[in-house]
Design goal:
Number of helices of chain A: 10
Strand content of chain B: 5-15%
Radius of gyration of chain B: 24 Å
Radius of gyration of chain A: 18 Å
Strand order of the largest sheet of chain B: 9-10-11-13-14
Number of helices of chain B: 16
Number of strands of chain A: 5
CATH class of chain B: Alpha Beta
Number of domains of chain A: 2
Helix content of chain A: 55-70%
Structural class of chain A: alpha/beta
Number of domains of chain B: 1
Shape of chain B: globular
Largest interface: A-B, 15 and 17 residues
Largest sheet of chain A: 5 strands, parallel
CATH topology of the largest domain in chain A: Rossmann fold
Shape of chain A: globular
CATH class of the largest domain in chain A: Alpha Beta
Number of strands of chain B: 18
Structural class of chain B: alpha/beta
Oligomer: heterodimer
Strand content of chain A: 5-15%
Helix content of chain B: 40-55%
Distance between the termini of chain B: 54 Å
Strand order of the largest sheet of chain A: 2-1-3-4-5
CATH superfamily of the largest domain in chain A: Cobalamin-binding domain
Distance between the termini of chain A: 26 Å
């Protein structure tokens, strides 16, 4: 029992320090020792990303540290995903997310951060990248039966495509199937409500909070 | 008489420059650049460069870069609307222009940002025309009352009508070049006349790291063939889209710009090119791109120094601020930037009027920045020997009641040695109070209103305006729009 706790501490430590290789190695070890993947995530890794989040909010961590921690979580989730799916994946994932920077826009720093933070917080995230065609958002969301579509835009010109996507969902009778979150430098709360989005995150943490609030349509165990 | 020294600041040693350029060349040779534009890729193929058509990657060897550099003119000349006044862009000449393509304007009355409209673009062009220290105009605002598809040509359409200054601009779509080129040619009265006397610079930004998108590459090719100078605006963000160290970012910056320069020369030997940029010291706490950071200015000054070493005209986004209103931060960042840029001898310095990470323009700030630019010009003029001896003669027969103020010497030199700002407060305290205790921003606003009320627009002549309107209307119509906003 003591060695299990020690392993959990090491996992948290690996995430806090952004040591991706170590985090992956520990995850593989946990699998080989037949630990419950849900417990491993909740007791080992989640405390790590939570601590990184606290350090960020205290202003001790900057983006390189924070994103490295989030990337650790992403890597760990990839290692544990098969085992999670074999056990109770539907129960574990907080929701399925399709995210991307909207058509005409190549800026993706903010979007990358949101994607990393969502994965780090237990969402199953598919990142379509930058300059993503509107049809692709919809196709992918349908294909994976997503809960959330997250749209980023840095330019006021491309921001208009956020409205367009929501209109497309309405036209096709799909609006009720997905929640739509918008973000990006020019985006405001006002804009989000004007275009009928389900929410707006001013930063990555806000986006995660919002996504957790909305949750998966099937309900979270 | 002793020759006046032009004050100059250089950040890099010769050997450091050589190392940076050498790594940039190795980077292009080994890793290459991504070129989305098919025509550019075939130009590279014709020049014998390895082109990977699957990944759109092009490797560029040292020889082609050196040949292209040898083909690029040392200076670029621009002419005003009338084709009379000449501006040499090159050597250590300094020309300021407003920071371009802001999508918002700071409204003085509300102190809030809002979307700019036609009337704002006209006001900004008119004010720029009135600023004696700002040599070029730029298409500084994006008008929200026309469809976005024609927003690029519409900015130029207004600028050419309301200011006679040469213009720094650029396309937002590949189809935007044609109408914009036609407008410029209309001002000159023909394509060849425009080639002989360029009126505009077109900005083209690679996408960091090491990618030239279809749109920007097409702009390079179109401009090269029309004889329009292209300004290469590499814009790495340290630690986000380029290496985190300043020297590492310089390697990428030089590589991206040189790849663009080669494209220009492959499209047309001797094409005019300006070695520019808009990089930033990425803020790792906020995830923002501060243009007012001292490290951003250091990157700018350093790549400009490298541009000079490569014998190219240079450009930078300096003299702008990340403040959201015209406050102390706006003044300090813009003041430092414009001063350092002038001391670095950067040829085109874009930034006047700009706030909020290149996204907002302020009419009031534009006028304040005009004064900053005036101070920078005075600084680089240096200290001159006006007379010989310098002062001894003034002290001949000097008595307690002798006054410097009434000496002919004083009267002869004071307006040349000293400048007199209009907006900076040099009043006594009581005078300042009696004039309403106004901040510089408020004084600038009064001046904005005064210029717009009292100075008639420097309008293009009627026939030219009709022709520009015809081109603009056709462009709008081709994109499915019949109406344009009223201008006057």
């Amino acid at each position: 029992m003591e060695s299990k706790d020690r392993l959990f501490n090491l996992m948290a430590e690996a995430v806090v320090t952004g040591n991706k290789e170590e985090a992956e190695t520990l995850a593989k070890r946990a699998l080989s020792e037949k630990f419950d993947p849900n417990e491993v995530i909740e007791k080992g890794y989640i405390p790590g990303i939570q601590k990184a989040g606290i350090l960020w909010e205290k202003g001790e961590y900057f983006l390189p540290e924070l994103i490295s921690s989030a990337e650790c979580m992403k890597a760990v989730m990839a290692v544990l995903k098969p085992a999670l799916e074999a056990s109770q994946a539907e129960r574990f994932f907080r929701g399925k997310v399709v995210i991307g920077t909207i058509e005409g826009d190549i800026h993706d720093i903010g979007k990358n951060l949101v994607a990393s933070m969502l994965s780090a917080n237990g969402f199953d995230v598919v990142d379509l990248g930058a300059d993503v065609n509107l049809e692709r958002f919809i196709d992918k969301a349908r294909e994976m039966d997503a809960d959330l579509i997250c749209l980023s835009a840095l330019l006021t010109t491309t921001m208009l495509n956020q409205r367009r996507l929501i209109e497309m969902l309405k036209e096709r009778g799909l609006r009720q199937q997905f929640k739509v979150l918008v973000g990006g430098a020019p985006v405001t709360k006002r804009w989000a409500s004007d275009i009928g989005a389900d929410g707006y995150g001013e930063n990555a943490f806000e986006a995660v909070r919002l996504a957790k609030e909305i949750g998966p349509k099937r309900g979270l165990a | 008489m002793i020759r006046t020294t032009r004050p100059k600041v250089e950040l890099l040693s010769r050997s450091f420059i050589e190392k940076i350029v050498d790594e940039a060349l190795l980077l292009l040779e080994r890793h290459g650049v991504f070129v989305e534009n098919a025509e550019a890729r075939s130009l590279f193929k014709e020049a014998g460069m390895p082109v990977d058509e699957t990944n759109l990657r092009v490797l560029i060897n040292r020889k082609l870069i050196e040949d292209s550099l040898a083909l690029t003119p040392l200076t670029v000349k621009l002419y005003d609307r009338a084709g009379r006044k000449e501006f040499v862009v090159g050597h250590d000449n300094v020309h300021f222009d407003p920071g371009s393509a802001a999508v918002k304007i700071l409204d003085h009355s509300t102190q809030q940002e809002r979307k700019p409209e036609t009337a704002d673009l006209v006001r900004l062009a008119r004010l720029t025309d009135s600023c004696e220290h700002i040599h070029f105009q730029s298409t500084a605002l994006v008008s929200s009352d026309v469809p976005e598809i024609i927003a690029d040509s519409y900015r130029l359409y207004l600028g050419l009508q309301f200011s006679s200054k040469p213009v720094v601009t650029g396309t937002f779509r590949t189809e935007g070049f044609r109408p914009m080129f036609e407008m410029l040619a209309a001002v000159r009265g023909g394509d060849e006349e425009l080639r002989r006397k360029p009126l505009a610079i077109f900005d083209a930004c690679p996408s960091p790291p090491l990618k030239w998108s279809n749109l920007t590459t097409q702009s390079l090719i179109d401009c090269a063939r029309a004889g329009i100078p292209s300004e290469l605006i590499s814009m790495g963000l340290t630690g986000a889209t380029s290496p985190v160290t300043i020297a590492g970012t310089l390697v990428q910056h030089v590589a991206e710009n040189l790849a663009g320069l080669v494209i220009c020369q492959l499209a047309q030997h001797g094409a005019p090119v300006i070695f520019g940029g808009s990089p930033a010291s990425f803020d790792m706490r906020k995830g923002t791109t501060p243009m007012g950071a001292i490290e951003t200015m250091m990157i700018d000054m350093a790549y400009a120094q490298i541009g000079k070493y490569l014998k190219l005209p240079t450009h930078a986004y300096m003299g702008l601020s990340d403040a959201k209103i015209d406050d102390a931060q706006a003044g300090l960042e813009s003041g430092m930037g414009a001063t350092l840029a002038a001391l670095a001898g950067i040829n085109v310095i874009s930034g006047a009027g700009m706030l909020n990470f290149e996204s907002t323009q302020s009419l009031e700030k534009l006028l304040v920045d005009n004064e900053i630019c005036g101070m920078a010009y005075r600084l680089i003029e240096g200290i001159a020997q006006r007379e010989d001896p310098l002062a001894l003669r003034l002290f001949e027969g000097f008595k307690p009641e002798t006054q410097f103020m009434t000496m002919p010497h004083t009267r002869k030199w004071y307006r040349l040695e000293h400048t007199f700002p209009r907006l900076a407060d040099r009043d006594t305290y009581d005078a300042w109070v009696s004039q309403g205790r106004k901040s510089m921003d408020d004084r600038a606003h009064d001046r904005v209103e005064q210029i717009l009320d009292e100075t008639p627009p420097n309008l293009a002549d009627e026939a030219l305006r009709k022709e520009l309107e015809r081109i603009m209307r056709r462009d709008a119509k081709n994109n499915g729009f019949d109406r344009l906003p009223d201008i006057l």
